[in-house]
Amino acid sequence: MALRSSTPKSHKHALDVAHPLPRPGTARAVLGPVAVVLLIGTVFVSVYLAAFHAPRPHELRVGTTEVGTHQAQLSQGLARAVPGGFTLETYPDESTARRAVQDRSVYAAYLGKGNLLYASANGAGVTATVTTAFGAVARAEHHHLSVEDVAPSAAEDTRGLSAFYAAFGLVLAGYLFGMTTYQLAPRLTFRWRMASLALFGAIGGIMVSVIGGSVGFGALPGASLPLALVVALMGAAVGGTTMVLLRLFGSAGVSLASILLLILGNASSGGVLPAAYLPSWLHPLSEVLPVGVGVRAMQGLSGFQNDGLTRALVILPLWVLGAVAVLYLKDVFRREAPSAAQNTAEPQYAVALPVEEVGADAEPARQAGPGGLSGLGGGGFDEAAQQRAAWFG
After folding, report:
1. How far apart are the first and last CA of the chain?
2. 280 burial via Cβ count (<10 Å: 0-12, 13-18, 19+)
3. How many CA atoms lie within 13 A of 289 on its CB side?
4. What is the pTM of this model?
5. In the chain, what's the furthest Cα-to-Cα distance?
6. Per-position b or e across 50-74, b if 16+ CB within 10 A of its CB
7. For residues 372 and 5, is the Cβ–Cβ distance under 8 A?
8. pLDDT tens, position by position, 215-235
């Protein structure tokens, strides 16, 4: 009687596949790491120099209460100062213009006769841009520029860069998490890997809100709970996206994640300068990548009446859910479907026989471990294999 045993088959991940190692001294072994790292370095230098080597605004939103001839002269003066640098919004009175600056609908508002409302929370770069441009306008009108800071930066954030550096640190952590989760536990089951991702995001959000908030440096003075939530979602989005790229492209996903999330994401985040200063090809990324969405919400919580918070609470969960869906398809759905089809086409039966009936074959079967006959009888499973199956699926 032919005996067949059914044993659970471990599923393979993209990172589990053993690739043949190149022979020492081959061109691939020598040139491969050089080419990959220099490619990433070239992208980094090119993107950051393109964005910040000579930053100038492109249609930066500013407001005014002036109308008619005075507004026309103002537009001409701004165009002379920075051609194409500003777009002008009209407000009926000073209080409306003030609120627009405070919620970052505009970055400054000119009230006429040399009076300018601005927000130092936008950072030193924006402050220099608007004061220089409107200073030229005021001089043309024979006025001295008088400025009022209606949305000051936090006392412990004098350069307005704290949101950028806090986000950069968590994005780097999310990128590293997405890699190490597969390196340390390549066979971890889907539900436990998602639990690990959620735990990383939650702890990261709390950590940043505590260190950067009033308890820590006081550089991120926004409400702690919304700040922690935004940072947690941003970290989970970056970590989940890194995991997806690794699952889809294997080792090449590491390079893709570094280019998309670390280089393009941080360069377009608006943390150093607003998106209006970015080149036209880089500007759209600030509206969709997790880093730019998160940084804008963090800045809004700190100094601009929650500007960007609603957008972040919509876009960041979409990134997280999208990553979870792709990982589910790769790690669960596509693994179960072939297994079910195989079981339907070729059913296997496990027959438990006493050791006495096996006779001379008992010892080889016992030595075979969980795949042999001893794994079919009561108490014959290898305990170490059981533990591995429980932990790694």
Report:
1. 32
2. exposed
3. 25
4. 0.77
5. 110
6. ebeeebebbebbbbbbbeeeebeeb
7. yes
8. 899 999 888 999 999 999 999
